[in-house]
Design brief:
about 200 residues; alpha/beta; TIM Barrel; eight-stranded parallel β-barrel; 10 helices; globular; EC 2.5.1.3; metal ion binding; ThiamineP_synth_sf
């Protein structure tokens, strides 16, 4: 099973990646919503080339067709995305796959498709988007890790730098950050702090 970097920021534009990836990020998700296809394609291309130049693994959220067409090699799908995605085409194209989960049924479904990582969230209350699920908590992180075994587990949702060590200690292999970076008054300094705090978990 592949080993991914423990620090996994999620960013909503190629412009954010251009600012932050050169600081030493090794794993990043491009998560763009509600933009025209030409904007999506341009941002995916920019992100692809930038990550290749900086030895960073790019994960494209949702847009698996564009990811295939643009030569990307890793996508992330939510449970709703799984309904419409052509998993056969994704696998034939050689793409790695991460899947979101929030409850037992979703975890079983995710594991059935042979994911390259499973994400569990929200671990803590999050302001990123409204969710019907209560915060999962650290005990659930440990339970999920026991169930997924060697599959890397991503903890996501409400995770700040101060909470990251606890999530990793509870069983997550990777911690994902969004607003803790993008809403910070100094995103570059925050990324450097994240890298310093989590790199000890990388092997």
């Amino acid at each position: 099973m592949m080993r991914l970097d423990p620090f996994y920021p999620i960013l909503d534009s190629a412009a954010w990646l251009e600012r932050l990836v050169p600081l030493g990020i090794r794993l990043v998700q491009l998560r763009i919503k509600d933009r025209p296809e030409e904007v999506l394609r341009a941002d995916i291309r920019t992100a692809r080339d930038l990550c290749a130049a900086h030895d960073c693994q790019l994960v494209v959220n949702d847009y698996w067709r564009l990811a295939i067409e643009e030569g990307c090699d890793f996508i992330h799908l939510g449970q709703e995305d799984l309904d419409a995605a052509d998993l056969g085409a994704i696998r034939r194209a050689g793409l790695k796959l991460g899947v979101s989960t929030h409850d037992d049924g979703e975890l079983s479904r995710a594991l059935a498709v042979g994911p390259d990582y499973v994400a569990l969230g929200p671990v803590y209350p999050t302001i990123l988007k409204k969710m019907p699920w209560a915060p999962q908590g650290l005990e659930r992180v440990g339970e999920w890790k026991r169930r997924v075994g060697d599959v890397p587990l991503v903890g996501i949702g409400g995770i700040s730098l101060e909470r990251a060590a606890g999530v990793l200690a509870a069983g997550a292999d990777i911690v994902s950050a969004v607003t803790d970076i993008t809403l910070n008054t100094d995103p570059e300094a925050r990324v450097r702090a994240w890298i310093a705090a989590t790199r000890e978990y990388a092997t």
